[in-house]
Amino acid sequence: MGAAGLKQRAGSAGKAAAFTSAGELREVLDRLLRLVDADDQAGAKLRAAKVPHRFVFTDLGVTLNVAGAKEGGAHSIAWTFGEAKWTPMLTLEMDSEVANRYLQGKLSLPIGLARGQVRIKCAKPRAALNLLPARRELIACYRMLIEREYPQLVIS
């Protein structure tokens, strides 16, 4: 194996699991949010947070907006890719590889912010804190989904 092969292996050795395309990212996130919406605890906690939020995945050009659904409806949360009917109180910008680590609970938000891997825009300073109670259930749903359907994304 030549020097180029060694360089390639060295470069990919520290690389985390990543999405292969914007389409795969959208598919996984849509399936995740369907699971969260169907989960009594996760969906209810996201709706109770009352924090419409936006994720911008900078490397793949995907924007996801999530908000609590109207009380008494069939759904706990609403989501859309691209523009939303609501204004987000919180926007998180990161690349898809960082998002995969974050959604698996492998990257804390403060660490991601400190390393410059995550950028945050917040209309109300407490908005991010209001989402914390739903984080554990969100991570559990994401891990279950990728372990079962997208094992290439699992980080051990």
List keywords for this structure.
globular; five-stranded mixed β-sheet; alpha+beta; single chain; 156 residues; 6 helices; Nonspecific Lipid-transfer Protein, Chain A; 17% strand
Characterise this structure.
By secondary structure, the chain is of the alpha+beta class. It has one domain (19-150): SCP2 sterol-binding domain (Nonspecific Lipid-transfer Protein, Chain A). The chain contains six helices and five strands; from the N terminus they run αααββββααβα. It has helices at residues 3-13, 22-38, 40-49, 96-103, 109-114, 127-149, and strands at 53-57, 62-68, 77-81, 90-94, 118-122. A five-stranded mixed beta sheet has the order 3-2-1-4-5. Helix 2 crosses helix 6 and helix 3 (40-49) packs antiparallel against helix 6. The chain is globular, with a radius of gyration of 16 Å.
User: For the CA atoms, what is the radius of gyration?
Assistant: 16 Å
Low-confidence region ranges? 1-14
**Averaging pLDDT over every residue, what do you get?**
88
CATH homologous superfamily classification: SCP2 sterol-binding domain
What is the number of E strands?
A: 5
- Largest beta sheet, briefly? 5 strands, mixed
**CATH class term:** Alpha Beta
- CATH topology: the name is Nonspecific Lipid-transfer Protein, Chain A
**Major sheet strand order:** 3-2-1-4-5
Helix-residue proportion: 40-55%
Strand content: 15-25%
CATH architecture descriptor name: 2-Layer Sandwich
What shape does the CA trace take?
globular
Helix count equals 6
Whole-number total of structural domains: 1
Q: In angstroms, what separates the terminal alpha carbons?
A: 28 Å
Order of helices and strands: HHHEEEEHHEH
Return the structural class.
alpha+beta
